[in-house]
């Protein structure tokens, strides 16, 4: 819980030195608790690919900052520019790490280790403790919700925690409206898992419907196009999980309420502002970043340039015709950026982790325990939202998103999360 609080409260922007040190200190506490959690058995229950991918995520940034002798690093792909630069300074014969931005890579290593430790603990704790952590995550989303309402109501004058933030929009504890929107969208399936009920199904549906409605309104005020699309996907997919257990009269009433809410929201200035941005999607600068970053992929795709080095390298080769007063901090597409910074080893670690998750999910699904499928479906939906958002942004570059990502992985792969209260009621086939 300490790790979750630190990441979600301090990790909404670019991780500075202080935030990284606090995350690292919490990670040390978490690592110290691992031996008492029975994590070995929990990890052994997962496919080998899952373990390899999780270990790769934690160890790869560390390996990238290990100093290498000149005879080694000078022979690695993509080092020509570095060799010429260090020759001018008379340092070409010095030991150098693989990363061209080792300070940034070291910070990424701290956060990656914290994430791997958090996933491991969530796999090992009891079902009741996992639900407590999930409730804490949802509670922090609620705090973020209240802060965001004040930000929108004050026009950005109150609770502005970051200098370079989307002032006036619903951002909460985050510096980026897109990340705030993703958190809101991902909280819907988490709420579905937590609010699932056998004895009070009607009350559960009412609370979940109320929460979904609040999230829908908040998503519009984020002014995030990706957030609105992901939010719609989350709301529709979550509704499909239990629509069969709802009486037709309630379905009609819910549809009428949804239509009325859409009509009401569509008359607000916030709606007009955000939906006018859909008309200029093809003019978005992120497509330009992809085109002007191609040379980075071609140079560093084998071993990578070091996690966190993109902004440094992009500034070197950015065409003068597209230079602006602001700087490009990320590529806004996680997949080619992962290839630039982590190369083939990073791509292999990601594919191994995802393959392990899919294999374990299929195993859990085949068991035929309907109660165990709800956590899997909710966690899988969160993973899908993050994966889709990563193609147009960089959510996993922010520590605040990592606890939700770690929780989603645990919901998918554990298989023992038979809820004490169920939301989905489906008649067994004859």
| Strand count | 0
Stretches where pLDDT is under 50 for at least 5 consecutive residues are 278-282, 420-430
Give the helices and strands as they follow along the chain.
HHHHHHHHHHHHHHHHHHH
Helix tally equals: 19
Give the amount of beta strand, in percent: under 5%
> How far from one another are the termini?
44 Å
Main sheet specs = none
Task: Give an overview of the whole structure.
- The chain has 430 residues and is mostly helical.
- 66% of the residues lie in helices and 0% in strands.
- It contains 19 helices and no strands.
- It has helices spanning 2-10, 17-33, 39-44, 48-64, 70-73, 80-88, 102-124, 127-153, 177-195, 201-221, 225-242, 248-266, 269-276, 285-292, 294-300, 310-317, 334-366, 370-389, 402-413.
- The radius of gyration is 23 Å and the shape is globular.
- The model is unreliable at 278-282 and 420-430 (pLDDT under 50).
What is the strand and helix layout of this fold?
Elements: H1 2-10, H2 17-33, H3 39-44, H4 48-64, H5 70-73, H6 80-88, H7 102-124, H8 127-153, H9 177-195, H10 201-221, H11 225-242, H12 248-266, H13 269-276, H14 285-292, H15 294-300, H16 310-317, H17 334-366, H18 370-389, H19 402-413
Summary of the model, kept short:
Helix content is 66%, strand content 0%.
